[in-house]
Amino acid sequence: MKDKSALRDLILAASILIIAVGFYIGNRIMNRAPAIVVEVSVDGVVAQELDLSKDGEYVIQGFNNGSNTLIIENGQAWISDATCPDKVCIHQGKINRSGEMIVCLPNLMIAKIVGEEE
C-alpha cells in the first residue's frame, strides 16, 4: 500500500514540476521580442508612444487633473512621482521587457512596454 502512495506522490511532484517549467518557457517565449517603446494610455486611449532608447522625463496628464512623471533611462521606464493618494505606481519599479506595465488606477494611466511585431 505504501508503494502505491509513494508512486502517486512522485507522479504528482513530477507533474507539478513539468507544468511549472512549461509556464516558465511560455513566459520567456512570449516576452522575447525586444522592447522598443513605452505605450502610455490614459482612460483607455493611447496618449503617447515613447522611444525606450531615448532617455527623458515625461509628465503624463491623467484623469481628473492627476499626473504621473515617467522616467526613461538606460532602456528602462518607471514612475518617479504621481499625484494619486496611494502612490502604488511609484512602487511598481522599473520595467524593460515586452508586456510589462505600470498601472495607476486613480489617474487611469497605463505605461506598457511594447516590443516589435514578429
Explain how this protein is built.
The protein has one helix spanning 2-30; strands at residues 35-42, 45-51, 56-61, 67-73, 76-82, 101-104, 109-115. It is 25% helix and 39% strand. The longest helix has 29 residues, at 2-30. It is α+β, with helices and mostly antiparallel strands and 118 residues long. A four-stranded antiparallel β-sheet has the order 2-1-7-6, with no helix packed on it. Strands 3-4-5 form a three-stranded antiparallel β-sheet, with no helix packed on it. Strand 6 and strand 7 (109-115) form a beta hairpin.
List keywords for this structure.
mini-chromosome maintenance (MCM) complex, domain 2, 118 residues, 25% helix, 3-stranded antiparallel sheet, 4-stranded antiparallel sheet
Strand order of the largest sheet: 2-1-7-6
Radius of gyration: 20 Å
Can you say what the CATH homologous superfamily of the largest domain is?
A: N-utilization substance G protein NusG, insert domain
Q: Could you please say which CATH topology of the largest domain applies here? A: mini-chromosome maintenance (MCM) complex, domain 2
State the CATH class of the largest domain: Mainly Beta
Total count of domains:
2
Helix content: 10-25%
Number of helices: 1
Biggest sheet overview? 4 strands, antiparallel
> Which structural class fits the helix and strand makeup?
alpha+beta
Low-confidence parts: none
**Count of beta strands:** 7
**General shape:** elongated
What is the typical, i.e. mean, pLDDT?
89
Order of helix and strand elements from N to C terminus: HEEEEEEE
How large is the share of residues in beta strands?
Answer: 35-45%
Amino- and carboxy-terminal Cα gap:
53 Å
Instruction: Specify the CATH architecture of the largest domain.
Output: Sandwich
